[in-house]
Design goal:
This protein has 335 residues and is mainly alpha-helical. The strands form 2 sheets. Strands 1-2-3 form a 3-stranded parallel sheet. The chain has a two-stranded parallel sheet with strand order 4-5. The protein has 14 helices and 5 strands. Bound molecules: adenosine-5'-triphosphate and L-tryptophanamide (LTN).
Length: 335
């Protein structure tokens, strides 16, 4: 008799279409999504509803959603292997988010550092969506009974609250949700701003020199690397207090797969100028195939539309199962 096939574990992750992806988004998150497709059942989404928590220009947002979708495919996310969809197309996300928000405490939401940061940054628009953002993110993850959630280090707290909400719900109603684990890689989990290496590189940073965008030309990438803030020493070594150099070493290491020791040896006796040039060239080489594929995909809008429609259909089908279960458990009449 054939041995029962082991069920593959599942993965879900998402990214907001709040701007062009930065090198941080790519190295910390998206780059790691494609390799997971071989071993897991993956679902990847553009978190367009999450991006509404900050004021967006409608025409620009529409363009960014499509660009973000194309960028996922250009980065190796394959719609024939994974479910690749746009969050707002799958209605179960807001449906579950509402229910989960009734199992999420005001106190725990108040402790979210992303909420505190964004509330400070957008003091004129501290809206309810910004506050309940984690309930929607928990819904995204729990709907697919995800085992693993690959994200950058800044999302750790949101994963913890997702687990807390799931455990709370399971505790009241019996086993309903799988409890997910974060998958936060050591290398590249937090790429820092080139202008202020104590701050994370963020797509919504106003300083254009702070981040490398996936759409930057080779010249711009090299210029930004050359301008990166470092220190007044001249030694390429990974050491506490050398935030700028540590960040560039991390970027160089992830792009070239060289260890910190190898990099230190390679640049021993050389100045920061040579090192920054090498970092720039490594980033250009890393991004070139993605940029070429992105351009090709943006010229194939019908193909993209076909992919996101199919993605939404599949995601709806799978997530509906969890949604029906939840509605039943809390005592709604499932129509
Ligand atoms: P925003 O500036 O709008 O807050 P963001 O650049 O922080 O956006 P998100 O859409 O919130 O990006 O995050 C997408 C993914 O990229 C997440 O998994 C997040 O952890 C990861 N990520 C974001 N910034 C970095 C960074 N600097 N280094 C590593 N990973 C990052
Ligand atoms: N909040 C995430 C984006 C996001 C996400 C998700 C990530 C929305 N839903 C579900 C993982 C799983 C961020 O990166 N800022």
């Amino acid at each position: 008799m054939e041995a029962a096939k082991e069920k593959r574990k599942s993965v879900l992750s998402g990214i907001q279409p709040t701007g062009t992806f930065t090198l941080g988004n790519y190295l910390g998150a998206v780059k790691n999504w494609a390799p997971l497709q071989d071993d897991y059942d993956c679902a990847y989404m553009i978190a367009d509803l999450h991006s509404l928590t900050v004021r967006q220009e409608p025409a620009k947002l529409r363009r960014q959603i499509l660009e973000a979708y194309a960028m996922l495919l250009a980065s190796g996310v394959d719609p024939n292997k994974s479910i690749v969809f746009i969050q707002s197309h799958v209605k179960t996300h807001t449906e579950l988010a509402w229910i989960l928000s009734c199992y999420t405490q005001f106190g725990e939401l108040s402790r979210m550092t992303q909420f505190k940061d964004k509330a400070q940054k957008h003091a004129d628009n501290v809206n309810a969506g910004l506050f309940t953002y984690p309930s929607l993110m928990a819904a995204d993850i729990l709907l697919y009974q995800a085992d693993l959630v690959p994200v950058g280090a800044d999302q750790k707290q949101h994963l913890e609250i997702t687990r807390d909400i799931a455990n709370r719900f399971n505790g009241i109603y019996g086993n309903t949700f799988n409890i997910p684990d974060g998958l936060i890689l050591k290398a590249g989990a937090k790429i820092m701003s080139l202008a202020d290496p104590q701050k994370k590189m963020s797509k919504s940073d106003e300083n254009p020199n702070a981040c490398i965008l996936l759409s930057d030309t080779p010249d711009t990438i090299i210029k930004k690397c050359k301008r990166a803030v470092t220190d007044s020493e001249a030694e390429v070594v990974y050491r506490e207090g050398k935030d700028g150099i540590n960040n560039l070493m991390t970027i160089y290491s992830v792009c070239t797969k060289k260890s910190f020791e190898e990099i230190e040896r390679e640049f021993s006796g050389k100045g920061y100028g040579d090192f920054k040039m090498a970092v720039g060239e490594a980033v250009v080489a890393e991004l070139k195939p993605i940029q070429d594929e992105f351009k090709r995909l943006m010229d194939s809008k019908d193909y993209l539309e076909d992919c996101y429609r199919k993605g939404a259909e599949l995601a709806t089908k799978i997530s509906r199962r969890t949604m029906d279960k939840v509605n039943k458990k809390v005592g709604l009449i499932v129509g």
